[in-house]
Amino acid sequence: MELLEITFTAKYARREDKLNILEELSKKLDNLKFFVTLLWEAKGLTANKYGQLSQKLSAVGKMTGKWLQLFKKEAPAN
């Protein structure tokens, strides 16, 4: 739910605020990927479910990364 909330916030945020919000989104997504892997290693997920989740999280990560790159290019240098 947090990821969806942050994504929604980033979508409608002012341009100058988006970079920080997207960086937060990226960190939360990385944490989720880590905990899903940990859950699988602890046998809390089947290999099939883990594979499905991993593919989806990877796709979301790529989209988030591209969005983040876009704003890093546009962000003024401090």
Description of the molecule:
By secondary structure, this protein is mainly alpha-helical. It has one domain. The chain contains 3 helices and no strands. It has helices at 2-12, 15-41, 47-74. Helix 1 (2-12) runs antiparallel to helix 2 and helix 2 packs antiparallel against helix 3. The radius of gyration is 15 Å and the shape is elongated. 9% of the residues are buried.
Question: Which spans have pLDDT < 50 for at least 5 consecutive residues?
Answer: none
Q: What best-fitting shape do the alpha-carbon axes yield? A: elongated
Radius of gyration: 15 Å
Mean pLDDT: 92
SS strand fraction:
under 5%
- How many beta-strand segments? 0
* Proportion of residues in helical segments: over 70%
**Main beta sheet, described?**
none
Distance between the termini: 33 Å
| Count of DSSP H/I helices | 3
Taken together, the total number of domains comes to: 1
Determine the structural class based on helices, strands and strand pairing: mainly alpha
SSE topology string: HHH
Please name the defining characteristics of this protein.
0% strand, mainly alpha, 85% helix, 78 residues, single chain
